[in-house]
Amino acid sequence: MPAYKDNKTGKWFCKFYYTGWQGNNRQKWKRGFATKKEALAYERDFLERQSANPDMTFQNLYELYMEDMAARLKQSTILTKKHIYETHILPFFGSKPINEIKASDVRRWQNHLMNSQNGYSKTYLKTINNQLTCIINYAKRFYDLNTNPCGQAGSMEQAKAEEMDYWTYDEYTAFREGIKDKPLSYICFQVLYWTGMREGELLALTAADINLMTKQIDINKTYQRLNGKDITTPPKTKKSRRKIPIPNFLCQELQNFINTRYMLDPNERLFPATKHFLSHEMERGCKKTGVNRIRIHDIRHSHASMLIEMGFAPLEIADRLGHESVKTTLDTYSHLYPDKDQQLADRLNQFRRAIPPTEENS
Fold first, then answer.
1. Which end of the chain is more exposed for a tag (fewer CB within 10 A), N or C?
2. 6-62: per-residue pLDDT in tens?
C-alpha cells in the first residue's frame, strides 16, 4: 500500500489497483493529501468498501448505504437520514467495525440519547433508533453481517406520542380572527383546517389543482424548500394522491383569492409562502388571540377530530387524509373514540325499540 509525494505540489497521492463490480482489474488515483498517513487511510477505506466485509467500519457502511439509497429515496428523505446519522449515530459508532457492535453498545448509546440535555421527544428518539436498526438490517442483507445487536437491545421510547394537540372548532375560529388581516395567511389556514391536507401539500397547490366546478382539490405533489431551492416532488405514497371534496364556502374563498393573483399561471404555486411563513403566522395569531399554540401539522389532527365528532367512519377519514391504510387512522386517533362503543350500543338499543314486537322478537 504505497503512497507517493508530488514534488511539484508537495502533496501526497495514492495509486493502487482494485477489482471493480464487473470483476475487472482497475486502477485508482487520488491526489491532494496533506500527509502520507491521509493518503494511506483513503486507500485502506476505499478497498474496505470495495470488499464490503462485515468487519468494515460503521462509517464505511454508512457511506455505502447512503450511496445506494440516493437512487431510491426522495432528496428530502436522504437529507433527513443524513442529519440523523451524522448528528446522533456516527459520533458513537463511526469508527467501530460493524461486526463488533454489541447489544450492550446499543444500550449505552440509547441511554446517552435518552439522558441528553437536549430533551428529545419520545417519538424523535424512536425515529433515531429506527435509523440505526435500518442500517444494521441493510448490513445483514447485503454484507453478510450475522448478528443483530439492535434486535437484542430492543427499541427506545415509542412510535407515536401519547397525546396529540388539536384545536376545537371554536378555538380555530378564534385563532382565524387573529390572522384575518393577511389574505394569504387566512386562506392558507382555511384550506389546512377544512381539508386536513399536509403542509407540503398545501404549499405545492396550483390553480390547476383546484376544480371549482366539481368542488375538489387534487393532491398530486408536495413542496419543500431544500438548500435554498424550491423543490416540488410527487407525494410519498400512492394513497397521498387523492381528490379532496371541499365545502361551498371554501370554494368561494378560493375563487376570491385566485382572482387577486394577477395573471396567475395555472401551474404556478397558488400560495407563494414557506413553512417558516406559516409557523410565524401561527405564532402571531396565537399571541393576538390567546389561543393555545399547536404545530402546523396539528391542524390536520384538528380536522380529523372534527370529522370524528361529526360521525364519519375511519375509512372515510383515512381516504380524505391520504393515510396508507385505515389502521394508520385508527392507531393515530383511537384516543378520540373513548365513548364510541357506548354510542354504538345506544344506537342499537334505539334500533331495537323501533322494531314492532312480533312473536319472534317479543
1. C
2. 888 999 998 887 765 455 677 888 888 999 888 888 887 777 666 556 778 899 899
Return the pLDDT at 338. 60
Burial 21-59 (b: 16+ CB within 10 A, else e): eeeeeeeeebeebeeeebbbebbeebebbbeeebebbbb
Distance CA 61, CA 55 (A): 10
The SS3 call for residue 202 is: helix
Cell reading at 14: 495514492
Taking the alpha carbons of 101, 102, 108, 109 in that order, is the dihedral positive or negative?
positive
Q: Which of 344, 343, 319, 338 is nearest to 329 (CA)?
A: 319
- 165, burial (CB in 10 Å: exposed 0-12, middle 13-18, buried 19+): middle
Alpha-carbon separation of residue 277 from 120, 194, 273, 282, 292 (angstroms) = 25, 20, 6, 9, 19
Cα 87 from Cα 152, distance rounded (Å): 24
Contact 113, 93 (CB under 8 A): no
Q: What pairs with residue 15 in β-bridges?
A: 29
**Quick check: 88 and 128 in contact, CB under 8 A?**
yes
Residue 205 to residue 203: CA distance in whole angstroms: 6
Residue 124 grid cell? 424523535
The runs of H, that is alpha helices, within 261-336 are 275-289, 297-310, 314-321, 326-333
Coil, helix or strand at residue 260: helix
Could you tell me the domains of the chain?
1-36 (no CATH), 52-153 (1.10.150.130), 169-336 (1.10.443.10)
Instruction: Kindly tell me if the per-residue pLDDT of 137 is higher than 50.
Output: yes
Closest CA to 324 of 211, 240, 268, 256: 240
The rounded distance, in Å, linking the Cα atoms of 45 and 38 is 11
pLDDT tens digits for range 323-355: 998 888 888 887 777 655 555 566 667 766 666
Asked if residues 199 and 276 have their Cβ atoms less than 8 Å apart, the reply is: no
Phi, psi of 170 (to 5 degrees): -65, -40
Please check whether residue 68 is in contact with residue 141, taking contact to mean a CB–CB distance below 8 angstroms: no
